[in-house]
Amino acid sequence: MPKRTRAGAFLALAVTGLALGATLATPANAAAAKAPGFLKAADLPPHPSSAWTAGKVSAGVPEAVEQDRCLSMALGGGSGTWYREFRTDLDTSARQISVRSSTTAAAKGRFSRLNRDIKSCAARVEKADPDTEARLKDYGALRVEEGAHVYGLHTVTSWGASDIRLLSVGRDGRTVTVVDWGQLGGFKDAPVKAFRKTTVTAVNKLD
Question: Which domain holds residue 162?
């Protein structure tokens, strides 16, 4: 994500937000491999007052993922991983991370692990910071390729910061992708229908 937002708005989930930019060192074979298909800016849920801007597709994972309580355990560094970041001129940001495993079985395992980690991350957020309340919503599965699932995470701090995050996990063969969207607000501000469409597009673009 190109700028800091508060609490659960994004991948660092360090209550007040996260910093994007630096990336983990990536093996040369990951950089040389062909990346799977990625979302474009136009594929993101439309923002009411700002156009989306897409960054380049890069090998590796953002360093901020190491601190993320929803994704870090299943999305470490290593070969076969790529990401793309998206931003608006306001407080809304997004990111897609895709991992191509060596086998279909490994991809199935990663897909399952990501779903488990997302379902349990609200409890980890609250345990790590007692001043933050976190609530997860399960928006259900999507019928696309080998499957996808959509979630929402709302965090509120004791001083009133409120952030909403949408996450989805999808798989096509050996490739698993995560789409992560966040902004200030609550569940009522989340474009769930549009995000579900974005998720279907993301999985369909994997190759």
Answer: 7-13+39-204
Residue type, 91: D
Note whether residue 24 is domain-resident: no
Residue 96 lies inside a defined structural domain of this protein: yes
C-alpha–C-alpha distance, residues 99 and 108, integer Å = 12
- Report if residue 124 sits inside a domain: yes
Q: Using one digit for the tens of pLDDT, what is the confidence trace for 128-165?
A: 999 999 999 999 999 999 999 999 999 999 998 999 99
- CB distance 5 to 40 below 8 Å: no
Q: pTM for the whole thing?
A: 0.83
Among positive and negative, which fits the CA dihedral 185, 44, 167, 190? Answer: positive
CATH at residue 88: 3.40.1000
